[in-house]
Automatic annotation (TrEMBL):
Protein name per its UniProtKB record: Antitoxin
Family, as annotated: Belongs to the phD/YefM antitoxin family.
Residue ranges, compositional bias (Polar residues): 1-15
Function as written in the Swiss-Prot or TrEMBL entry: Antitoxin component of a type II toxin-antitoxin (TA) system.
Database matches in Pfam families: PhdYeFM_antitox
Organism for this UniProt entry: Verminephrobacter eiseniae (strain EF01-2)
Superkingdom, taxonomy of origin: Bacteria
UniProt-annotated stretches for the region Disordered: 1-24
Length: 84
């Protein structure tokens, strides 16, 4: 994947080239030297916004085995009840 960076002026003068560049990866468009927008192909956008419907799907997604998750064990203690 190649990231292409264009200024707003370059994008305005060459929108067709920017659209073709999305075949290779995202196109960052800058305003006054700072990233302002990202142009993606529709396929990349769909993949990015794909929603997982349940926890089983989320746990089955590629790369989930490498995510470190070690929550602390809950310490639940009983207390005496005062019915007065």
């Amino acid at each position: 994947m190649t990231i292409t960076t264009l200024s707003s002026r370059e994008f305005n003068q060459g929108a067709s080239e920017a659209k073709r560049a999305t075949d290779r990866g995202p196109v960052f468009i800058t305003d006054r030297g700072k990233p302002a927008h990202v142009l993606l192909s529709f396929a990349d956008y769909q993949q990015l916004t794909k929603q997982r419907r349940n926890i089983a799907d989320a746990l089955a997604m590629p790369g989930s085995a490498t995510i470190g998750f070690g929550p602390p064990r809950a310490a639940i203690q009983s207390r005496p009840v005062d019915f007065s």
